[in-house]
Amino acid sequence: MSTPALEVTGLEFAYPDGTQVLRGTEFHIHPGERVALLGANGAGKTTLVLHLNGILRPQAGTVTVAGLPLDQHNLAEIRRRVGIVFQDPDDQLFMPTVYRDVAFGPANFGIGQPELDQRVGTALAAVGMEGVTPRAPHHLSLGERRRVAIATVLACRADILVLDEPSSNLDPAARRELADLLEGLDITLLMVSHDLPYALRLCPRTLILSEGRIVADGPTEELLGNQALLAANRLELPYRFSSSSIQSQ
Amino acid sequence: MSATHTHAFLSHQNSALHRLAPQVKLVACIWFVLAVVATRREALAFLAIDAMLVGITALAGGLSLGFLARRLTLGLPFILFAFLLPFLGGGPQIEVGGMTISEPGLWAAWNIVAKATLGLGVVVVMAATTPPPDVLAGLERLRFPHFATATAGFMLRYLDLIVDDFRRIRIAMASRGYRGRWFGSAFALASSAGTVFIRCYERGERVHQAMVARGYVGNMPIPAHPSPSRQQLMTACGLPTLATGLAALSWLIK
After folding, report:
1. What letter does residue A65 receive in the DSSP assignment?
2. Exposed, middle or buried: residue B1 (CB in 10 Å: 0-12, 13-18, 19+)?
3. Does A160 touch chain B if contact means CB atoms closer than 8 Å?
4. Residue in A84, A91, A105 nearest the CB of B203
5. ipTM of this predicted complex?
6. pTM assigned to the model
7. A112, exposed or middle or buried, with CB in 10 Å at 0-12, 13-18, 19+?
8. Lower Cβ count inside 10 Å, N or C end of chain B?
9. Measured between CB atoms, does B22 come within 8 Å of chain A?
10. Could you tell me which of A2, A168, A22 has the C-alpha nearest to residue A89?
């Protein structure tokens, strides 16, 4: 078995107000896998994501990325390898132009010219957003901003792409275009969501997080077909979707 | 898509002035303002030539004189006090239109109004031909303190979102009957401003997380840039050089 691209063991975390969010979270992802992390609001999904590249530090347990333990020594390398795309592109895109936003990460990781230009061009081409480099991010549509947000991470040559609610607020066409884009990327992917049909489309494997623990880990089709499991974890398929229709797909 | 409040001053064209490197335009702009300030206030003809030069520069940038005149009205609130000087100043008095006013006060008012308008004119031309992110890039290239340009950059980036947040709150308030006509309703307005402040603070936290996630450790990267060409420098120097010549002549020919 290969070294996991990402391994989380016994993760515990409580916020300063005493709210315990993660309670012994454990899972691992192998290189090239596309995995959905599903959970209801408040399950601890975003808190878990913030641990994957050391923005939050575990109070107990470990995070290991391609064999590198998350510690101060490996922090910069882990942040390069684990690219997080946040839920709101307006949080992710903070520079005055698209070029400077996409170049921000690689420049921080020590990439200079002419490679920086090449990285920005390649990352924007990968998300189908060539030609927008001089534009201000807030002048793009939400779908375009989400694509550019993904490019900011691709430009760092991340090994693992972590997407926090990538389909939220997108119109149906933009959702489909984003799904096409993500399916075409040759990268390990962890998609955090409560959009079950989107998880089914993109991720063969699913983890279900509930009250800070991974309570289910298996093929997406199988887990989404288990009505009792979904109900127990406050997950619901959209109207007119049924567990039987999921399993027959 | 967000509104474009920060681009309200920009004229979307592609003139030679638009293509000039922003740092060159900034230096030329400041140089021109200094030359105008140095011009003798009594040299009316020279100040008129300066005004013509600003007009010609605006036309070269594809801006109409009407556009320039409308933007110049932005300066009115700042020079209004100058109109009081002829009435408040001391020294010799003269009669103008049946009113007795102070001559030094009149000259002081003229000096402020004429030079502020010329300075504002050239700033309007620069703002209309330089996208705001380029102005910041120009300041960075001129070695302006980086914390200041980074702060201004964030302000520029998020101003539209903050204005939109405030607008949405106002719509939500109006939808529930808020009219904002009475002093008592100021409390609701202050609360909405507080809500926007808290949202900005929380957004700041999230933006910082996104920056840290991409390797930010306290220093913003400064992008490389090509040096301006000789032709660009010559073009940009034209206006301030002429204004400097006029300033010198105004003192030589009294």
Report:
1. E
2. exposed
3. no
4. A91
5. 0.76
6. 0.75
7. exposed
8. C
9. no
10. A168
